[in-house]
Amino acid sequence: MTNSTQGAKASSHFKKTEKHPKAVWKKRTASASRWLHIYLSMLSFIIILFFAVTGLTLNHADWFEGKEQIKKYTGKVPLKWVNAKDTTRIAKLEIVEKLKHDNNVRGDVSDFFIDDNQCTVSFKGPGYSADAFIDRHTAEYKLTDTRQGLVAVINDLHKGRDAGKKWGLMIDAASIFLTLLSITGIVMICFMKKKRFSGFVLVGVGTLIGYLVYHFLVP
User: Phi and psi dihedrals of 207, rounded to 5?
Assistant: First the structure.
């Protein structure tokens, strides 16, 4: 083997070695994006389905009107809880717990008003509300419980209305999942030579359609 041949092989080997780290990086990036896309899709399947379905029920609420159920209750709390002249001494926590226990009230307290004659306690939850009016002189109360059905519940969950902070975190997590799903899909397209151009064309067409619908059809 001549020195020139050995030199050519060494030069070729050096070039391959020089390119090798980049090839490994591309392969690992493509593999990681594919792995993330697949498993994020599986993990967030129910979340995506939920927000897809509730997007339809929100946009066409008249198609899914449920029957509102209204129940009325009466009862009494201990007089000392509500008749204190100093309103800061009114037993708010005890009142709330008793109303919930005695009348199967759910949801969180949204308002607790106190005036000279009565206390008004309001509870809110997804597709749900309850309002109690307590006479401060007799400690008797009247409570109205309103339940608006399953569709109203899932619509409120979609909007995060009256669903509490923990459900708000769930919505944040869903948003992050969907964002990562979109990003990993774009990254995957970048490594598909045969589909890269058509894929980005479709991304551009989808973006343009969204803009045109907004520009010409949204008042």
Answer: -65, -45
DSSP state of 138: T
Paired with 190 in beta bridges are none
Nearest to 139 by CA among 196, 200, 95: 95
pLDDT band of 79, cuts 50, 70, 90: very high
CB contact burial 127-162 (16+ within 10 A = b; e otherwise): bbbbbbebbbeebebebebebbbebbbbbbbbeeeb
Q: How far apart are CA 34 and CA 187, in angstroms?
A: 9
Q: Are 129 and 64 in contact, with CB atoms under 8 Å apart?
A: no
Q: How far apart are CA 96 and CA 101, in angstroms?
A: 9
Query: What is the layout of strands, in order, in the sheet containing 118-125?
Result: 69-76, 140-147, 128-135, 118-125, 108-114
pTM of the model: 0.71
Give the containing element (helix H, strand E) for 107.
none
